[in-house]
TrEMBL record:
Protein name: Glycoside hydrolase family 57 N-terminal domain-containing protein
Upper classification of the organism: Bacteria, Candidatus Daviesiibacteriota
InterPro entries: GH57_Enzymes, Glyco_hydro/deAcase_b/a-brl, Glyco_hydro_38_N_sf, Glyco_hydro_57_N
UniProt family annotation: Belongs to the glycosyl hydrolase 57 family.
Transmembrane segments: none
The species this protein was found in: Candidatus Daviesbacteria bacterium RIFCSPHIGHO2_01_FULL_40_11
Source domain of life: Bacteria
Glycoside hydrolase family 57 N-terminal domain span: 89-268
Keyword Amino-acid biosynthesis on entry: no
The entry's keywords: Carbohydrate metabolism
Biological process (GO), any one: carbohydrate metabolic process
Gene3D superfamilies linked to this entry: Glycoside hydrolase 38, N terminal domain
Length: 450
């Protein structure tokens, strides 16, 4: 019997430009670089050509696919064709789910699952959540959507028997009574795929050495019938790690098969042959901050290396305020059925270029979709909002533009004015004396105002 391994990649980049025609050409990168295009050339396209999506498992975010579709159709086609067998679902966009209301959780999870179904003709078994961030309410929404399991870091799970939660499928039972599986990856393997701890003694310079020194010992740790699982950013191979495309190609296509180690899909795992543990999750935990309560994104831990991060709370407050106000507007205009309408039309609303290719109802839905996209967590991941904060600002402005397109110009104008005032409480540590309002006006220039 060959030994089995699941090597999986999380593929994500935020939508750095707007799909709205009046906001085309606004570049959110301070140096004017198209990072998504650069990473496509370094990672996504070479990996597609080397057959990586045929041998690994992956989540590939809807927002990223949207950014790539026109310029890299062959790459996107390769990803889509492998999604049914190798893919797991995602949330389409990248807000931290525990920070959202229950209804907003339903919308973004529903949109991600619908996209998976539209591409594959199948309901997804598993899902990767933004930053793997979970709370009990998120799990309840996943269960209602028929999701069998979610992937997370071992530090997000506690087993009832107190044993090591690495690489263990764990049954989680939220108060609603139904259950869902937490699939924890192997931390040591995943870390070594992503990082080179000792530059003088690299492990990733040779896929055969990596197999023997990292994967073999990890296989020896297996104990429950669950295959060894490593999960890392898909951008590792080619972007973060310049020679990574060759590394992953050699690993999955030659080094592992030659040793009788089969890279299988996460969707092939037969849970009838796996011992499932019982446990619970740490509410509001994530894979890239170990401090709990999503501390990194709220400026409450030292993940950002001691940077001055007091700007994060007013930043979050401004964008949450905008999203809450737009929720009230769309609920008032469309009634509670707006939730189903948003899930059904999320993809079209996300790509809505504005008039004449829209309707008042679609523009309302697009407004709310843009407000949720403006909650993308990348800005608050870092120590300052200098690079990624502009992305949130652009989508907030576009959310308000869609309100105008929906025939609500006065409410749009008033909401944007209040948003700008709230951005006066935000500052950028890299740009002393400048507020979030200054950042907004500098980015948007003549499109700063409604
Ligand atoms: Zn932290």
């Amino acid at each position: 019997m060959p030994e089995k391994i699941v090597l999986a990649g999380h593929y994500y980049n935020p939508l750095r430009e707007s799909n709205h025609s009046r906001f085309k050409g606004i570049c959110t990168d301070p140096q004017g670089l198209d990072w998504t295009g650069i990473i496509a050339e370094q990672s996504y396209t070479p990996q597609a050509r080397k057959g990586v999506f045929k041998k690994t498992s992956f989540d590939f975010q809807g927002a990223l696919e949207c950014a790539l579709a026109d310029k890299y159709p062959e790459t996107v086609a390769e990803i889509r064709v492998n999604m049914a067998t190798r893919g797991v679902a995602d949330a389409y966009i990248h807000p931290l789910l525990p920070d959202l209301s229950r209804v907003d959780k339903q919308i973004v999870i529903g949109a991600g699952i619908k996209r998976f179904f539209d591409i594959t003709g199948k309901n997804p078994r598993f899902i990767w959540l933004p930053e793997a961030a979970v709370d009990t309410e998120t799990l309840e929404v996943l269960i209602k959507n028929g999701i069998e399991g979610f992937i997370c870091a071992p530090n997000q799970v506690v087993l009832n028997d107190g044993s090591d939660p690495n690489n263990v499928p764990t049954r989680i039972k939220p108060p609603s009574g139904e259950t869902i599986l937490a699939l924890t990856y192997d931390q040591a393997l995943s870390h070594k795929l992503a990082f080179e701890d000792d530059k003088d003694h690299p492990l990733r310079d040779d896929a055969y050495k990596f197999r023997d020194l990292v994967i073999r010992p990890a296989l020896d740790r297996l104990r429950n019938g669950f295959p060894l699982m490593g999960y890392t950013d898909g951008e590792t191979f080619g972007h973060h790690m310049q020679w990574g495309g060759d590394f992953i190609d050699t690993l999955i296509n030659r080094a592992l098969p030659e040793a009788g180690i089969e890279p299988i899909s996460i969707n092939e795992i037969d849970f009838n042959k796996v011992t499932i543990a019982e446990g619970r999750i740490w509410d509001r935990s994530a894979w890239s901050c170990l401090h709990g309560d999503l501390a990194r994104w709220h400026g409450k831990c030292d993940c950002c290396g001691g940077a001055e991060v007091g700007w994060k709370e007013p930043f979050n407050k401004a964008f949450n305020f905008l999203n809450d106000r737009i929720t009230k507007i769309i609920e008032g205009e469309l009634g509670s059925s707006y939730i189903e309408k948003m899930i059904a039309n999320f993809d079209q609303a996300f790509k809505n270029p504005g008039p004449p290719a829209t309707t008042p109802e679609l523009s309302l839905i697009s407004s709310k979709v843009s407000a949720l996209t403006a909650l993308t967590s990348c800005a608050t991941f870092f120590g300052d909002p200098h690079v990624s904060g502009r992305i949130n600002i652009l989508h907030a402005r576009v959310a308000v533009e869609h309100l105008k397109d929906a025939g609500l110009p006065n409410r749009a104008r008033a909401l944007w004015s209040t948003f700008l005032s709230s951005m006066e409480q935000v500052w950028d540590p890299t740009n002393p004396g400048k507020t979030g309002r200054d950042m907004t006006e500098k980015l948007l220039r003549d499109r700063s105002y409604c």
